[in-house]
Structures are given as structure tokens and as C-alpha cells.
Amino acid sequence: MRREVVFDIETKNTFQDVGAYNPSLLEVSLVGAYFYETDTYESFLEEDLPKLWPRLERADRIIGYNILGFDIPCLQSYYTGELLKLPSLDLMAEIANRLGFRIKLDDVAKATLGIGKSGHGLQAVEFWKKGEIQKLRDYCLQDVKITKDVYEYALTHKEVKYVDRMGQVQTCPLPLEPVPDGQQTSFNLSLGL
């Protein structure tokens, strides 16, 4: 059974609020995730994060867009283990490794899937500040769905597309493979022995 997890996080504050570009200084408002094992989209508020950790630890691989540069560093202060030790796939990093520059998820999604993101991260902070939790969930889970669809496209087609700075659609080879069933063993990094 496939145990990959696609996830995305939203924060309560911005880099401007904390005075530095340091994801570990940001507070998590919500994590959205898609679990292949159960074929479900779920969300976790900050206080629900302890319920997320065992599911990430059991995952064959955690997948996201800019998770190494943003999501994982933001989450690390909430987790007692080392999140970077979990098997992961950062789609943005994979694309940047091939192209030599970073591409926004929106530009990849529009060219690859024909749909863009429903908004931007600053909107999510505003949703949090206004107490609009359902809008925050919807926004985050839409990003998770787009990320999952880009990942699935790359698995099938071994490439993704993106809109370049001139507005032209380009192709980036991305020969991804799912983790074979049973390859990753479950381990627990968040509970003391």
C-alpha cells in the first residue's frame, strides 16, 4: 500500500512580522495534507500537530513544494525529532536542480495542469488573523491538491511544464518514481525511548 503524504503549511505571521527571512521564526496556523494510504485530504491546526507526526513518520515519503526551504523549517520547532530525516521529495528543489532557478508553484500548475493557485500565502495569514478558519483550510487544501496533481503528472509524464519570464510555456524533465511498496520502514522520531 502506498504511504506517501503530500502536504503544505500556512502560517500565522509573515517574515515582515518577525523581521527576518527565517522560516523557523514563523508560527504555523494550519497544515493541509493528502494521505495516499487513506485517499483523504485532512487539515491540522497548530494544536492538532501531535496527531500529524506519527502519520508523517509512517510515510514512505513526504512530498511538497518548497518543503525543504520553508515548510519543514517552519514545522521543526513543533517537532521533537528531526523532520529532515524523514524521506522527502521537494518538487520545487527537483525542478530548480534541473533548470538552475526556482519556479513558483502557480507557474508550474498553470502550465502543467491548466489551473493556478486560488490565492497567495499572505491571504492565508489574513484568513488566520480574521478567524476565517474554513477559508484557510480551503486555501491550504487547494494548494495540497495542486501539488499532488503536479506530482502525479510528473510520475506519469516524467516532466512538468512552467511559464517562463517571457510568458512562454516550457518543459522541464522530471523523471520521478513513486516509492515502491514496503521500501520504507516505519520509525518514530518524536517519542523518547
From TrEMBL:
One of its GO terms (molecular function) is nucleic acid binding. InterPro entries: RNaseH-like_sf, RNaseH_sf, YprB_RNase_H-like_dom. It holds the Pfam family RNase_H_2. SUPFAM superfamilies: Ribonuclease H-like. Residues 6-153 form the YprB ribonuclease H-like domain. This is YprB ribonuclease H-like domain-containing protein. It comes from Candidatus Uhrbacteria bacterium RIFCSPHIGHO2_12_FULL_60_25.
